[in-house]
User: Fold these one by one.
Assistant:
Number 1:
Amino acid sequence: MPYRTLDKDRITATASRLEQRIGERFPDSSLRKVAVELVALANDTGIQAAALEKPVIWLRILTGLAVLCAAMIFALVGTVLSFDRISTGAFDFVQGLESLLNTLVFAGVGVWTLVTLEERFKRKRALDGLHALRSVIHIIDMHQLTKDPAAFNVGFIPTKSSPERKLSRAELTRYLDYCSELLSITGKLAALYAQALNDSIVVNAVNDIENLGTNLSRKIWQKIMLIGETENRLAGGRGATAIH
């Protein structure tokens, strides 16, 4: 079903289209450079997610050989070595049974560790990719950090250390909207890892990234709403002056 799974190619195409839109409106902005980096990251994420869905053949072969060697060692101990001189007393029997159980437990732990080695290997690669996405989210947030709608208020006086503000209300609204879209695409890229690898740790990390992006996007939309309210107040003031 095409609408039950995320398509990495469509996400990459959406990121590429967004980069073009940002470049057409803000060609010299650093936000465009972030968008370009996100497109490259989308390509890398798609490749990594596809790789995580496939079995790691060399690791499975190595695991199989290790299990086979362990089985051969146990078979050697059980068949070749002689136990004829071991006493059949109750005390010796209990000791032998305890040793056997300990050996089986340690062997089971060892086999389980080898069997889950591929899962842990994939988890490490997924978490590395998610770490890069988390960093991009914070970089996007830094770009909208100084975009303050309060600068459009009547009577606003900037200080010497205030950032230079060249964007109009409409341009700032588009700029902030682009930041929100970048955050949304980053969340979708993170979800590709959860789709490729059904691991609880990876899924929790993906949820954390999505929640982080959602919270930051909420802050951005609060700024967009403030820009609209400021424009409405100014329009209302002009209307009252005309009536007066």
Number 2:
Amino acid sequence: MKIYIGSDHRGFYLKDKVEEYLKGRGYDVENIGPDNYNPEDDFPEFAQKATVKIKTSDDQDPRAILMCGGAQGMGMAANRFKGIRASVVWDTEEAKWTRNDNDSNVLCLPARIFDKPEAKLDLYNVLDTWLETPFSGATRFIRRNKQIDEV
């Protein structure tokens, strides 16, 4: 599984934690930016980079993890692209169901929650749950995902 990670300025330091953790777990991670902290950058640029990477990847199960202040902006920007199912996730329960039911291929993390020192364990549990939960493949979920792409 190839994982693309990106953020805006608000998620910049969280992105570093996520990258370090994923690489330590043996995942193939590509940091799509930003490379430097810039308080003037804009999240849509990085959401677009991630979705283009997913859509042009040769990997069988490419995914992205995007971070910004509340994660909503990243999710909205990423979901503009056909075939992208971005989910804003703040706990393991949401991480599980968005993979199982929706076959989420983009995880959007709110830095306001996960960049706090006391949230470190929660962050890693959310990442592991989202990455390890398979899509159920249930007929109704396949049908619904297809309907999303037809909008």
Number 3:
Amino acid sequence: MDLGIKGRWALVCGASKGLGLGCAKALAREGVNVVMVARGAQVLDAAAQALRADAALPAGTQVLAVAADITTPAGRTTALAAHAHYDIVVTNAGGPPPGDFRQWDREAWLAAVDANMLTPIELIKATVDGMAERGFGRIVNITSSAVKAPIDILGLSNGARSGLTGFVAGAARSAKLASANVTINNLLPGAFDTDRLRTTFEGAVKKTGQTMDAVMQARMKSIPAGRFGQPDEFGAACAFLCSAQAGYVTGQNFLVDGGAYPGTF
């Protein structure tokens, strides 16, 4: 299916690896010009170079790499200045560390809220009005399945991302945006085969004395799909939410978790 977004411009955050890279790939393969943003210049440049060489990219598709920390005002300014305007914005910042809430001080909480709630809000604020003026806009926030099913060791993430979810629920329903074909949705990943997943499992490895492989196998058994997700299939879900066909989908929390969440709603 042609998603109807060829030639659009997208800003994809945290795009050097993992889920952000999966989104950048999926959009570029649809002919979207992608500005990839991440903090690590070396890894980012390598990812961008590999994507430019992808045989699935339509001719003329541009892939730009911008090394910047999107969680800082200076980093956001740099990323937003990489192109005159964006039709698509995929917000994504590394999740805060797992741990025991008893050990987190005020600074840890502020850092989590700044990166995983306030940064996406700042990017939304900077781009939605221009999108509305042009009559097309898609914002996708990569959050977490923990928004629907909180995980005890991910309290910083649970709190910050839930705050973003509440904000999006209201902002996405603004008549000024929704009637102008501007949508804002959240994409909630479950367990995907990424570095972040392994970092989360490290605590269980230390606590139980099991090997990383044993911990991962046990987690896979708890997922109805019987496996971890792959970044490319997450990217495909992102690309759909960014498509012309998804104009009637806004303010939603799209769960991609292999059936792990057991609830009806």
